[in-house]
Amino acid sequence: MKKxxxxxxLAMGMMFTGCxxxxxxxxxxxxxxxxxxxxxxxxxxxxxxxxSIRNLMSEGSVWRITEVTTDxxxxxxxxxxxxxxxxxxxxxxxYDAENTIVRQAWNDLLxxxxxxxxxxxxxxxxxxxxxxxNYTNEVKxxxxxxxxxxxxxxxxxxxxxxxxxxxxxxxxxLNRAAATERIIKELTDVIPSLKQKGEVPYGRITKAAAQQxxxxxxxxxxxxxxxxxxxxxxxxxxxxxxxxxxxxxxADDIWKLYLSDNAKYADQTExxxxxxxxxxxxxxxxxxxxxxLHYNMTFNNFTSFWNGACTTSDFLKRWDPxxxxxxxxxxxxxxxxxxxxxxxxxxxxxxxxxKDRQGNPxxxxxxxxxxxxxxxxxxxxxxxxxxxDYTYGSGSDNDVMFxxxxxxxxxxxxxxxxKGDTAGALQDINTIRKIRGVKEYTAAxxxxxxxxxxxxxxxxxxxxxxxxxxxxxxxxxxxxxxxxACNETRILLPIPNTAREAxxxxxxxxxx
Length: 512
What we know:
Shape: globular
Distance between the termini: 40 Å
Radius of gyration: 23 Å
CATH topology of the largest domain: Serine Threonine Protein Phosphatase 5, Tetratricopeptide repeat
Mean pLDDT: 92
Strand order of the largest sheet: 4-5-8
Oligomer: single chain
CATH class of the largest domain: Mainly Alpha
Number of domains: 3
Structural class: mainly alpha
Low-confidence stretches: 1-30
Largest sheet: 3 strands, antiparallel
């Protein structure tokens, strides 16, 4: 396994240069390994590709691009804490080709393709047992998932096929339209062969995950290809297939999807593509509690909080505070804070008011400055609930709900509304609102912006769709708290200078 991970990292660096000696050496070492020639090791060969999905939730990379470019998240500079121009530029949409967060997102996404290609190269060489075929199809999806985010965020990118191991030859460059058609074809080809939920263990790629990604590609088709309109009939058809399959159901308690022991409940309800975290097994990285809470809000074994991320007043204004998704108090007696949106004076578990490090009352406010905030400015979000009795350090065991079943209802409803079927759209959005315990809409109230808001209520900080939604609903370039309106050329991120230095066939996106 160590050699496989090393090869992925090395091949990532070699992919866009003419240097091939070291890559060839590592690949030859792998070819002679008993691991890669054994059909019983299909899971091991697919593991690096699976691990790349976790990189999509990397707090300083793809996740930050997905969330911080929207009104859902910001990392204000607080004195000398979080004093990072790269953060500020991502929030302001003033990023350039030297931005380290943009560069890391680009690298992580391309690494996901490289890891997938390496896995496919080995899997394709094995005896084609049922197990090998299953993992091959799953890895094809993983590769396509990374292609989707590259297409969505950067527009064009270099692409090698799994069999193209001659690194002296430069890879092809897929433009946005060509990449879109390629993604559609790959997903369409693999969907019939992927297993349904229940046919593979929780955490494995299923048919519904590919159908969900394809539905998003069809919804974004007009944006990606410049044809303006999405393929709404195809979106509706895919959503119908999953909803009518009976394999999933909407959670009657949305917060159970985000508790520390969420795997069983999520598997029984909405988890379409979960990302598994297990501190005991050494699968760490779920730090969404640490990144937002103030230093002085520690409790039990949770001894290190970073006082970083907050949300904006624009996001908060969309909410009805009576919405159960707004906040939940089930762990407040054990932690001192509620789940969801955390605003105002903060208290410890005994009910004593907390103070910041200067001795001022710890009152989270909606007002903040991106360039210079104090410790308490910015309303915080706790998406993933801690286990108060946890004994494995400050990390969390919550599986990330990357793709969820409720997305199918909201995608289908949006597609119906865009086609003029208000009654059908109303039924879908109200299916979600009813089970969440909030007032249902009337036909007269229903607009596309209601769908945009509902999607943010359902999926904030999940790391999958926030930026995509802001672009599709036309809100990405609008002025918002601490952000001026931007030109639409900022929708596509800049191609990092390091990438263009390595491959002179990569063109910079307009506006940079």
